[in-house]
Amino acid sequence: MALNRYVTEMGMGADVHGRDYTKAAKRAVSDAIRHSSLNFFRALDKSPNDMKITVRIGVAEPNEVDTQSVAAELPYGSVTVECVVGGLDVPADSGHTQASPMGDAIVMANAAVIVCFDE
Question: Does 90 reside within a domain?
């Protein structure tokens, strides 16, 4: 069977304090799917659980993302999460002291949620 792409949604998420790349990634996925309403299942003779979903997350530190936690943001289908270098880290104002050795920063993630079906 061949996979055919039906939907590509993009989103952006941020963690303003804490340098939590997983939180930023989950917010990016939520942003991507927030305005979606997929109504073509009946026309394709498919169910939401037939979806093969690939989530590509771009963050500055891809190894810091809990991919299972990100996958759990999607309630249907078979979900695969891939993390790549991307996103953006915005350092804290240098005039402020932080408890963290790396300092505080805003971390931003980008997400592409790609929905395919076996045909």
Answer: yes
Residues of the domain holding 74: 3-36+48-118
Question: Which has the closest alpha carbon to 14: 2, 26, 32?
Answer: 26
Tell me how far CA of residue 42 lies from CA of 45, 70, 77, 106, 110, in angstroms. 5, 28, 16, 42, 31
Specify the CATH number for the domain of residue 20.
3.30.1330.20
Residue 43 lies in a domain: no
* Residue 51 identity (one-letter amino acid): M
Q: Is residue 42 part of a domain?
A: no
Q: Which of 30, 13, 7 is nearest to 110 (CA)?
A: 13
pTM: 0.89
Residues 26 and 73: beta-carbon distance below 8 Å: yes
Spatial neighbors of 27 by CB under 8 A, at least 6 apart, are: 11, 13, 14, 15, 109
Chain segment 60-104, per-residue pLDDT in tens: 999 999 999 999 999 999 999 999 999 999 987 765 544 455 568
Number of domains in the chain: 1
